[in-house]
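User: Can you recover a sequence for this backbone? Please restate the input before giving your answer.

Assistant: Of course. Working from this structure:
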C-alpha cells in the first residue's frame, strides 16, 4: 500500500469506526422500531467495514465517541427526515470515496462501496 492510499484508508477506517458509535447512539435514542433496526444494521456493517480496512492499514484505531455524543444531541432536536437525509448524503459520500479503490489491488472495497450506497437508499426511505 502506498503512502497516499494508506492515508485515505486510515481516514476511511476512522470514519467507519465513528459511524458505528453514531449509529449505536441513534439506536439507543430512537423509539421508532424501524429506525432502531436500520441503525443497528448499519452499525454492524460499518464495524465490518472498519475491520476490512484495518486489514489493509495494519492499524488499530479507536472511534471518536465525542463526535457521536454531539450528534446524539443534534439527533434529539432535528426532524428525523432531515437526519436521515444527512445520513444518506454521508453514506453516498463514503461510497464515492471508495470508488477509486475498487479493483484488483483492494478486492473487498467494492462490497464496502455497495453497502454504503445501500445504506443511503435505506435511510432515504425512512
Amino acid at each position: 500500500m502506498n503512502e497516499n492510499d494508506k492515508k485515505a484508508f486510515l481516514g476511511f477506517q476512522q470514519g467507519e469506526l465513528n459511524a458505528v458509535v453514531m449509529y449505536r447512539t441513534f439506536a439507543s435514542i430512537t423509539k421508532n422500531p424501524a429506525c432502531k433496526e436500520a441503525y443497528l444494521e448499519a452499525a454492524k456493517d460499518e464495524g465490518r467495514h472498519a475491520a476490512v480496512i484495518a486489514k489493509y492499514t495494519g492499524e488499530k484505531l479507536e472511534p471518536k465517541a465525542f463526535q457521536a455524543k454531539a450528534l446524539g444531541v443534534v439527533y434529539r432536536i432535528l426532524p428525523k427526515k432531515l437526519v436521515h437525509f444527512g445520513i444518506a448524503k454521508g453514506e453516498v459520500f463514503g461510497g464515492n470515496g471508495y470508488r477509486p479503490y475498487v479493483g484488483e489491488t483492494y478486492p473487498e472495497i467494492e462490497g464496502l462501496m455497495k453497502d454504503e450506497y445501500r445504506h443511503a437508499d435505506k435511510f432515504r426511505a425512512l
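That completes the design. The chain is about 80% helix and 0% strand.
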